Amino acid sequence: MHLTILLQFKVQCQSTHHETIVHFDLKGAPPRPGYFKQLLTVVSDLGADGVLIEWEDMFPYKGALERIKNGNAYSVDETLDILQHAHSLGLSVTPLVQSVGHLEWILKTKDFAHLRENTSFPMVACIGDDETQDLILDSIHQVISLHSKIRMSSIHIGADEVFQMGQCDADREVLPLKYGNNTKRLVFDYIRTVATNITTSFPKSEVLMWYDELKNVERSLIKEYELDRLVTPVVWKYTTYLEKDLPPKMWEELASSFSTVWGGSAFKGADGPNRYWNRMKTYVQNNRQWYLQAEQYGELFSNFHGFILTGWQRYDHFASLCELMPVSMASLAINLKIVKNFAVTENDADLILQALKCPSETTISQVISGEDKCHFAGYKVRDSIRDFMLVKQQYENASWVHNREAAYLQRSQIRLNASNPFYVDAVGRSYQRFIARLDKIMNQLEAAMNDIFFSDVFIEFSTDYIMPFYDELKQRLASVTAIDAQRTYRARPWFRR
Q: Which InterPro entries does the record cross-reference, listed alphabetically (predicted)?
């Protein structure tokens, strides 16, 4: 993907005035406060209008939630410093506090397991239970109160992927009495309660929510529960063919109830739950599609407000880490321009190279391919992960090694310690070279990660992505060593029943 490709449709498409908001997902690899502030500076330099911060368990909660928050959670002073820095850069800050689903960080614990919608799954809260409402509203109030010390005009209450509903005792009790066994009414009444509480306690606060529960619903039901005036939907979709996934009827039905809408694209974290390198092409296609969606359907609304570029760090609280921020900075930079302009202009390219602190000879094509030598915040982590990926690719493409493995290091040969040392030794020396390179990369990566992330991030990342390959090489090298120690062999057959 080269600059000429990015520019090819510029003649037909004009820049929009939609706002762009960058999402920070702190349920995985939360940045140290200093690195967080550096990231906010880059986001501002790239021209974004604001950030959406999904604090999850990293917020400095007090009361009932204090004992289950992340052990690395930010302090009140650190949180205020982060918020103040964003404000000083002119960035709006919208907190995201999950209110229905994706409450794994709370419901996983012994303290709050009794509030699960389904006792087997720690995902969705039992919203018919008054204790749930009190707990969620407390979490929202704490977040808004702290944000308001600096500035806050909107909050996102999540409400996506509510996979179970009407299963807990409290829900089953109230459903036939109050909602005619209609779980959608149960959900809407709960959302109305939450949104009304927010707007009453914190006037002029806009309440955003993912559109999941609002699509394919009769207009009369949305109006009955006043959601048309209480919440603003955020339509999210991270695929590359939105014309199919977001059909005209969906937009028309949504516009019949809501005057304002946001779009939700992605710049990372939506291309596979265990992808550790950012394949930018998928996100460029997604953000281009979002530009076209806004062009086609924006006029249905009084205000197509803009785009939230999501940057998921885990698919949920329990999922693996994916596409850390350092490997996604180029994608963020490119897609902030794509979603507004459909393309990257020469002026955009100059701004990107400057914001990412790239040497003067750097081309935008190098940034897109990840072959640059830019010194943006966290670049050492990006470089080390890139080095690991290249080492792994070199091993996978080493056909001479794999040909000899296929001939001389099959399971039977390893089991018997019987093979031809002449061929096995050459493979063993190759293993040693790969292992030595991995040792160096892991040392560099650990130091680089610990500078910008908390120490558990390197442990988790290396355990999931580096150690399986490293251990495989170690085991194969041990097999070579064992074969070398075997000097003589008995007559065949070597296998008998």
A: GH (IPR017853), HEXDC-like (IPR038901)
**Please, what is the end-to-end C-alpha distance for the chain in angstroms?**
58
Task: Tell me, yes or no, whether 220 and 307 share the same domain.
Answer: yes
User: Does 281 lie in the same domain as 133?
Assistant: yes
Query: What is the predicted pLDDT for the residue at 204?
Result: 87
Per-residue pLDDT band for 272 (boundaries 50, 70, 90) equals: very high
We report the CATH number of the domain holding residue 317 as 3.20.20.80
Q: What is the pLDDT of residues 383-404, one digit of tens each?
A: 999 999 999 999 999 999 999 9
Q: Is residue 18 part of a domain?
A: yes
Q: Say if residues 480 and 424 touch (Cβ distance below 8 Å).
A: yes
Model confidence at 472: pLDDT above 50? yes
| From 161, 206, 224, 295, active-site residue | 161
**216: which residues sit within 8 A by CB, 6+ positions away?**
250, 253
Please tell me whether residues 444 and 304 are part of one structural domain.
Answer: no
Burial class (CB in 10 A: 0-12, 13-18, 19+), 493: exposed
Beta bridge partner(s), residue 208: 156, 232
Burial of 491 (0-12, 13-18, 19+ CB in 10 A): exposed
Residues 25-53: what's their mean pLDDT? 99
Q: Which of 322, 355, 373 is at the close of a domain?
A: 373
Give the burial class of 436: count Cβ atoms within 10 A of its Cβ; 0-12 exposed, 13-18 middle, 19 or more buried.
exposed
**What count of Cα atoms within 13 Å lies in the side-chain half-sphere of residue 5?**
10
For residues 238-243, give the mean pLDDT.
96
What pTM does this model have? 0.95
Per-residue model confidence as pLDDT tens digits over 322-338 = 999 999 999 999 999 99
What residue has token string 């596979």?
Answer: 272
Report the alpha-carbon distance of residue 145 to residue 147 in Å, rounded.
Answer: 6
- Based on the fold, state whether residues 299 and 368 are members of the same structural domain: yes
Gap between the Cα atoms of 449 and 458, Å rounded: 6
- Indicate the angle between helix axes 183-201 and 169-178, nearest 10 degrees: 100
Cα 107 off chain centre by: 21
Take residue 102 and report the two structure tokens written for it: 């994706």
In this structure, is residue 493 part of a structural domain?
Answer: no
Determine whether 173 is an active site residue. Answer: no
* Same domain membership, residue 476 and residue 344: no
Q: What is the C-alpha to C-alpha distance for residues 101 and 8, in angstroms, rounded to an integer?
A: 41
Query: How many domains does one find in the chain?
Result: 2
What whole-number distance in Å separates Cα of residue 72 and Cα of residue 30?
Answer: 9
Give backbone dihedrals phi and psi of 125, rounded to 5 degrees, phi first: -85, 150
pLDDT at position 11: 37
**Containing structural domain, residue 393:** 382-485
pLDDT band at 10 (very low <50, low <70, confident <90, very high): very low
**Residue 491 within a domain:** no
Average pLDDT over residues 196-223: 96
Examine the pLDDT at 462 and tell me if it is beyond 50.
yes
Cβ atoms of 159 and 99 closer than 8 Å: yes
Q: Are 361 and 388 members of one domain? A: no
Question: Do residues 414 and 318 both lie within one domain?
Answer: no
